[in-house]
Amino acid sequence: MTFLGTSAAVPTADRGLPAVAVKREGEVVLMDCGEGVQRRVLSGSLGLGGDMTILITHLHGDHVTGLLGLLQTMSLAQRREPLNLVGPQKLLKWLEVTSELLHIGLTFPIHFSTAKPGVVLRTGGFRIRAARAAHSVEAFSYLVEEFRRPGVFHPERAKSLGVPEGKLWSRLQKGKSIKLEGERVEPSQVTGPPRPGRKIGYSGDTRPSAELARFFSGCDLLIFDSTFRDSDREKAVERKHSTSLEAAELARKAKARHLVLTHFSARYTSVSSLVREARSVFPNTTAASDGLSIEVAYPE
Ligand SMILES: [Zn+2]
Ligand SMILES: [Zn+2]
Asked: Could you tell me the distance, in angstroms and rounded to a whole number, from the CA of residue 205 to the centre of ligand 2?
């Protein structure tokens, strides 16, 4: 995971507008597209031409205005690969109107899926679910779930079945059956039970809710709205955001493994007090910063 922008509403000298990227085996899932995201994409190792899915949480300028520039740059680079886009229905309208007015012709197709509670998309490596967030406009939270992985491979079982080491082992390891002298060998004969994949949750802008605590249950990594310090909770309630303490309480309820706070209000020059508040409730908390990369560990 790489954090491309971690500020709320307005950028600061150190923080750009919201965007987070998940990268796995060449596939990229980009969550939100704050202004200037394309510079971050270009300077990182994400690439403009590969397998990409973009999830937009809601239609507030700070989360979406970077999308048009990113798509335009992809077109100038002659991208041909289709791109998956998920977001509220009006996102498509905004994109059609703005690209028409600015004469932006895309060189690649966009496969748009309307965000709604439940599974919204299956990509090469992930199942993507959405839930309703509690914000001032229609907004969604997303869960990016890696597909289950094949179980642990037991070489001694493969040997005892007479499967020669090499290509056939690797097929079985990947969960595919093979034929050996006319007999089928199933991967379950030589591997343990399938292992769960990794689960990454992204709240977007939201108040905490019981629904989201359920939705993010068991996340390996939870990225949560942390716009305000708890002494500014009134503002969080009024503007439909969360405090770092509320983010931590939700992470605890959801039994997440790791919490990353993001979307910090530009009023705080340092976020260390927000992190301290969160750690008092949920010790495994990190503050996001622009350019921060995290390797998400597999669950045990
Ligand atoms: Zn925002
Ligand atoms: Zn918002």
From this structure: 5
